Amino acid sequence: MKRDELKVQIILSSGKFLYVTEKARDVLDNIRRGKDQFIEMLCTDGFRHYINVDHIVEAKEVYQ
Predict the structure, then answer these.
(1) Would you give per-residue pLDDT tens digits along the chain (64 residues)?
(2) Exposed, middle or buried: residue 53 (CB in 10 Å: 0-12, 13-18, 19+)?
(3) In Å, how far are 47, 48, 55 from 42, measured between CA atoms?
(4) Pairwise CA distance, residues 13 & 1, whole Å
(5) What is the structure's pLDDT at 64?
(6) What element of type H or E holds 6?
(7) HSE (CB half, 13 Å, CA atoms) of 33?
(8) What integer pLDDT is reported at residue 29 of this predicted model?
């Protein structure tokens, strides 16, 4: 599998969710390690989001 095929679905405590494609592996690693309070990600909607890690309920890998 190619790295560019990986997407990460981020589910927030508000019930909203985002799909991250750019640097998805790095975003997932940052969430799992808990290094930063805020995670920067480029969503499939084309906008950059800064998400507080405390608001992330689940992050799962999605393959296409």
Answers:
(1) 455 578 889 999 999 888 888 888 888 888 888 767 888 888 888 888 888 888 999 988 887 6
(2) middle
(3) 6, 4, 17
(4) 30
(5) 64
(6) strand 6-12
(7) 9
(8) 85
Q: How far apart are CA 22 and CA 15, in angstroms?
A: 22
Whole-number Å distance between alpha carbons of 20 and 25: 9
Three-state SS sequence of 11-64: EECCCCEEEECCCHHHHHHHHHHCCCCEEEEEECCCCEEEEEHHHEEEEEEEEC
Is pTM beyond 0.70? Reply is: yes
Torsions phi, psi of 22, nearest 5?
-70, 125
Q: What whole-number distance in Å separates Cα of residue 64 and Cα of residue 19?
A: 12
